[in-house]
Write a structure and sequence with these properties.
Blueprint: H1 2-26, E1 29-31, E2 38-40, E3 48-50, H2 51-56, E4 64-68, E5 81-86, E6 93-98, H3 109-123
Parallel strand pairs: 2-4
Antiparallel strand pairs: 1-3, 4-5, 5-6
């Protein structure tokens, strides 16, 4: 009985992962380096975000630097990346923790939205000193 449950559970998990891979394969991705307003460092230039999120960046002004930031003393127990979106003057940054799938530089809608929200914050004239 336990073996049957385990086998069904494994099959279900495999099916879910396969569906996620297929869905990701059919959505158009845009590299951060292709977005006009962003000026990503070489380490993050090839990270990709869904095209629908990338189009939202067109309303912003830049240039806004994007970099990978060190974790400091405490690192989360995940395959996360600590990104920073910098203000145009380079004096302020907004940190964003994203978690691309293992072995990938592709960000999902949620993580791409976090990068966009950080860019909006750094693009605004209301950045606190």
């Amino acid at each position: 009985m336990v073996l049957g449950f385990s086998l069904r559970f494994t099959t279900l998990c495999t099916a879910v992962l396969l569906c996620e891979q297929i869905q990701g394969a059919f959505s158009t991705q845009v590299r951060l380096g292709q977005i006009r307003v962003l000026h990503p460092d070489a380490a993050v230039r090839d990270y990709t975000i869904p095209e629908l999120v990338a189009k939202r960046f067109e309303t912003l002004e830049g240039p806004l630097r994007v970099s990978e930031e060190p974790w400091g003393e405490i690192r989360p127990r995940c395959l996360c990346v600590n990104l920073a979106v910098w203000s145009a003057d380079g004096k302020h940054k907004a940190l964003v923790v994203v978690e691309p799938p293992f072995g990938s530089e592709g960000l999902d809608d949620k993580d791409a939205g976090k990068v966009y929200d950080a860019a909006v914050k750094m693009n605004s004239n209301k950045v606190a000193s």
